[in-house]
Design brief:
about 200 residues; alpha/beta; Rossmann fold; 7-stranded mixed β-sheet; 7 strands; about 35% helix; globular
Length: about 200
């Protein structure tokens, strides 16, 4: 399976209405990462927009590793079927599946990388785990913090980032894209050590 591509999935809701929402930060990360992969996102029969290509340059100037960047065209709470279809289509082992998603339980602008574990109430992750029959895939958690006051979490995640949050968000998106490149190049443990030390 070493020839299988990496599948990097950015979670969110489809369409321009949701594009700037906190819940769509996973797709925002993919848009930044896509600058490093020649080409453009196109529609896939798995109900996702995908960008296939090589990420950067490998040793000795060789083409970089194969990647598939994917944004499910389904709503967040039914992300599982498109992800499962992509995993099957590209024959991706779970150790090469990375899901990028928003995380209420992390402070804003915090990044954490892990394999497996629970879903923490995240309906997109629940759907993916249920479809795959496993939780043993990689996740890049992008902190968005808890809602202020008594605001409902469901309302909070469907609101756009505020003007005051956007400068920090831009930095976080760049660092998240870099973390994905590091993960693919150097593996989970080395990337966790660097990322978590930098973001502690």
């Amino acid at each position: 399976m070493s020839t299988a591509p990496w599948l990097v999935v950015g979670l969110g809701n489809p369409g321009p209405t949701y594009a700037g929402n906190r819940h769509n930060v996973g797709q925002m990360v993919l848009d930044v990462l896509a600058r490093e992969v020649p080409g453009a996102f196109t529609a896939h029969k798995a109900r996702a927009a995908v960008l296939e290509g090589r990420l950067g340059v490998g040793p000795g100037g060789a083409p970089g590793p194969r990647v598939v960047l994917a944004k499910p065209a389904s709503y967040m709470n039914v992300s599982g079927p498109p992800v499962g279809a992509l995993v099957r289509f590209y024959q991706v082992p779970l150790e090469r599946l990375l899901v990028v998603h928003d995380e209420l339980d992390l402070p804003a602008e915090t990044l954490r990388l892990k394999r497996g574990g629970g879903e923490g109430g995240h309906n997109g992750l629940k759907s993916i785990s249920q479809t795959l029959g496993s939780r043993d895939y990689l996740r890049l958690r992008v902190g968005i913090g808890r809602p202020p006051g008594r605001m409902d979490a469901a309302d909070y995640v469907l609101r756009d980032f505020s003007a005051s949050e956007r400068p920090g968000l831009a930095v976080t998106l760049e660092e998240a894209a870099e973390a994905i490149e590091d993960l693919i190049a150097d593996g989970l443990e080395k990337t966790q050590t660097r990322l978590h030390a930098a973001r502690s």
